[in-house]
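The instructor's notes for this session suggest beginning with a concrete chain rather than abstract definitions. Hand out the sequence below and ask the class to guess, before any prediction is shown, which regions might be ordered.
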Amino acid sequence: MGGDGIDTRVVLLEPDTTRLKTNGDGLEDWIMRIYRLAAAAACGVLLMAQPLFAQQKEWIEYKNLEDHFAINTPGEPTVEKTMWTSEYDSKLPETIYRWQEGPNRYSVSVVDYSNDEAVYYANHHSDDFSAPAYWQIDILGSIQWAASQLYRLKPGVKVTFDNFHYINLVTGQQLSVINPDQTHSYVAIYLHENRLYILDATVARNAPAPIAFQQSLEFLDNDGKSIRYRTYYFDKLPEAKLGRRGAGQNTDPGAPPNGGAGGRGAGGGRGAGAPQ
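After discussion, reveal the predicted structure:
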């Protein structure tokens, strides 16, 4: 009872125990019909949502000891073995790991450049391109070569971001592009221990950036443990095995015969300075 003589008590009615006393219980029947309609609507929403839920996969930390990387992915990948053509026409082993989650596609491509010296010389280039500098340039320029061939120069692709990047202090390149079908691809490319890693996450036009995939890459040692560096990592070329000394070792035999115009720059790449 309130101070002004007004009854302020609140009565809580529990639907399962309280009967609403109305003329012919019509109000109770009406409320029960509303309950049934609401329940049916909720079931309909769940049934319509089942295809969407079915597309969602559990994300895991996928580890690959053969190619020495780990990354967060929607389940296990499909795997394709193929060959990669380098800037100087070396055919190198490439493994492509792919994932699909609804309209979104994810992939990690790993190209093994560690034997590029032998592959390069097996191509029997002309004498002008026999210097060790060229197979070394082939490796050192692999990030930019992949970025250009797969994205920058691809017809109908609009590059919206293209810059230096690093992950766990391993240096590389990051790109964002809009594809002809208006999907967005978020790309990261790194060169670690003479393996080229190409990450591609292609998502629907209005989907958020796939950070869970793109920022989770780790490089693994031979024991499968994550590698951590104290300073920026730049790839170290493999040691020459064919008895020739390469560029950067203060030897004339290793330098390009045209005074260093090989690779990108004046006369480099696949222009006038491309190997024959």
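Then share the key points. The chain has two domains: 23-55, 60-254. The chain has five helices and ten strands.
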